[in-house]
């Protein structure tokens, strides 16, 4: 017995088209869309839980700079700069101390180890931060404010110190 097999492409194509648009396959397609959506949401949530944001910040900036509201940081920085508008030396000193505290906090958050800003600045490798030597110099001014009772600072020096801190904060995208 010999069976003859006649295959008609047009009939096969019509059958597949009808099956594809049938109510059964419509339900299957809907369920697959829901399933894929749930899988994508799960993948995104797992990446967030794993800390991919930190990995991306390290890849883009070379360090894990903590996420900070730019408006809040800028408002705080403008408060520091406003202190320099005064003619009071104690306001200049307070501005420098606040700026130093902010920089110290940021350096510790991005991973530099040490008890204080001086130790953290010693760990900075060449090329990581542009003005490390300037930062060490302005930190010495901060130390003089803290340890020398009679230390006097003029407005121009205070502005230069704050500008050095500001340059670092801009480099780190803090402000």
Give a quick precis of the structure.
The chain has 175 residues and is mostly helical.
Structure description:
- This protein has 175 residues and is an all-alpha fold.
- The chain folds into two domains: 9-50; 70-171, no CATH class.
- 71% of the residues lie in helices and 0% in strands.
- The protein is built from eight helices and no strands.
- It has helices at 9-20, 23-50, 52-61, 70-83, 89-109, 117-122, 132-147, 155-171.
- Helix 4 (70-83) packs antiparallel against helix 5 (89-109) and helix 7 (132-147) crosses helix 8 (155-171).
- The protein is rod-shaped and about 115 Å long.
- The chain starts with 8 loop residues before the first helix and ends with a helix.
- The model has no long low-confidence stretch (mean pLDDT 84).
